[in-house]
From TrEMBL:
EC number: 1.11.1.24
Record family assignment: Belongs to the peroxiredoxin family. BCP/PrxQ subfamily.
The name this protein goes by in its record: thioredoxin-dependent peroxiredoxin
Domain Thioredoxin: 4-152
Native species: Tieghemostelium lacteum
Organism taxonomic ancestry: Eukaryota, Amoebozoa, Evosea, Eumycetozoa, Dictyostelia
Length: 161
């Protein structure tokens, strides 16, 4: 299992969104990205989590960040989940948990990827990670705090160290 460290380059990826379009990490270069892995569309905690991201989405955008959710659900499931809860951000399909493996996201009860969130800076470095199986919203506030610190510390794109 891969162990992601703060400060390391974010693992590169390309995955399909709910409409079948390819989305890659490189699409977000120069922006802050909040990448959140969640177990299942429509489950109570995952729904609360995604709706909390939806409700705070404008705060992420104003801070110069984008949000992308990832689960092993199908594109059709993501499309229905997005439509039902009016989610304004992209959900990616993680076939065979390949993205979860790249990011070191463990499985919940040995079945579904756990709930983990990564904040990736403008230079595509991991600057924060958090996890919480049963608390689907705490990491959202943490992510906004990290983004605010990034913005206040670096008025221009973060330099590579």
């Amino acid at each position: 299992m891969v162990k992601i460290q703060i400060g390391q380059d974010a693992p590169q990826f390309t995955a399909k969104d709910s409409k079948g379009n390819d989305v890659s990490l490189t699409d977000f270069k120069g922006k802050i990205l909040v990448l959140y892995f969640y177990p299942k569309d429509g489950s109570p905690v995952c729904t609360a989590e995604s709706c909390e991201f939806r409700d705070k989405y404008e705060q992420f955008i104003k801070a110069g960040a984008d949000v992308v959710g990832i689960s092993t659900d199908s594109a059709q499931s993501h499309e229905e989940f997005t439509r039902k809860y009016k989610l304004p951000f992209t959900l990616l399909v993680d076939d065979n948990s390949e993205l979860a493996k790249k990011y070191g996201v463990k499985k919940t009860l040995g079945l579904l990827p756990a709930r983990e969130t990564f904040v990736i800076d403008q230079n595509q470095k991991i600057v924060h990670k958090s996890s919480g199986l049963l608390n689907g919203t705490k990491h959202i506030t943490e992510s906004l705090e990290v983004i605010d610190k990034l913005k206040s510390q670096h008025q221009e794109p973060i330099s590579q160290h």
